[in-house]
Amino acid sequence: MTQEKRFALLIDAENISAQYADYIMEEVEQYGVCSYKRIYGSWDRIVRTKWEKQIGKNSLKAMMQINNTKGKNASDSALIIDAMDILYNGNVDGFCIVSSDSDFTSLARRLQEAGVMVIGMGESDKATEALENAFDKYVYIDVLAKQAAKEEKKGDDKADSTAAADASKSGNTPSKKAVEEKIKQIIMENDDQGKPTDLGQIGNELQRFYKNFDVRYYNHKGGKQYKYLKEFVDDFKSLEIKGGKGQGVYVSIKS
């Protein structure tokens, strides 16, 4: 039985809205178990705000700070110090830093240097490309929340289509055409012979090259959101998928 990876979830309450709390918890659980669940912010950013309710609901530990100097954010410093303490204790396999604040770019790089997995979550219109590239994967939590909200409105097909189309243009997300060309490049560089390439390998290479890539940001022509890499790749006319149903899934370039 494979042991689940343990993650430290560290949330910057002064940068991320409480409306994304449930989506954050749902997303991080896809990577492993949260050994640490901490949220950082000044008293007025947590107490008597929407975060206060989410702390109890999601069993978060509030690490409230006092800004001793005007213009200086004590919460950022506390989050960074705690992250390094947790790293040195050696109790986790990875970190999830929830913030769009570019001040955490160096922290993410340092954690990566230590050999642990580092996931970032933030808002698509706030995160910089430098911040996103400092993580193994950076998730646009606002895009996932919008997609989920539209999925619930089954009767409004037009709204669903618009939301899906907008999602693929969020932040620094690569275009579908750019992803298609990158997949073809991956296949051509597979033993330098353009052999059919394992879908899992393609997924890993795409994530390594595009830190913010996620098929859930894109949509079919009819407006329906993609959920799996296989259906995303299968929509490209220049590519062909073979295998499945208990066999390996491979992708090749159509001749």
Residues in helix, %: 40-55%
Order of helices and strands: EHEHHEHEHEHEHHHEHHEE
Mean pLDDT across residues: 87
How do the strands line up in the largest sheet?
A: 3-2-1-4-5-6
As a whole number of angstroms, the C-alpha radius of gyration is 20 Å
How many DSSP helices? 11
List the helices and strands and how they pair.
Layout (H helix, E strand, L loop, with lengths): L5 E7 L8 H8 L4 E10 H4 L3 H8 L3 E5 L8 H16 L4 E5 L6 H9 L3 E6 L6 H5 L3 E4 H12 L4 H11 L8 H13 L8 E2 H11 L19 H6 L4 E5 L5 E5 L2
Parallel strand pairs: 1-2, 1-4, 2-3, 4-5, 5-6
Antiparallel strand pairs: 7-9, 8-9
Question: What do you see in this structure?
Answer:
This protein has 255 residues and is α/β, with parallel strands linked by helices. The chain contains eleven helices and nine strands. The strands form two sheets. It has a six-stranded parallel beta sheet with strand order 3-2-1-4-5-6. Helix 7 packs antiparallel against helix 8 (157-167). 33% of the residues are buried. Mean pLDDT is 87; it is low at 159-166.
Structure summary:
The chain has 255 residues and is an alpha/beta fold. It contains eleven helices and nine strands.
